[in-house]
Design a protein that fits this description.
Shape: rod-shaped
Distance between the termini: 14 Å
Oligomer: single chain
Length: 103
Amino acid sequence: MNAQEEKFVAYWTERRKIWSWTTHAKRMFLNVVLPLSTLIDLVNYFIIGDTAYAFFTFTHLFNFVLNMLMLSVLIILGTGFASWNYNEGKYWGILRKNSKKLQ
């Protein structure tokens, strides 16, 4: 095992014990979903010119919240499963490779 693999194994050994969906969901929502849904809404209203409703109405708010919820579910679940599976695969691959070298 080289130094980079040892560093990753040490990192992921500790990280996988404390990894939680709650922390991941909060971080993804604040850093990705909220800015992305706001950007989509502003682009849709001001640049594309979707003026089917006034900017400050409950219909517009409902549409924004609905889009934000759909993006939240897709992005949070997608990135959570993808990052967990990637790191687990890499972790176990390194450990299997290392155990084969020892035999």
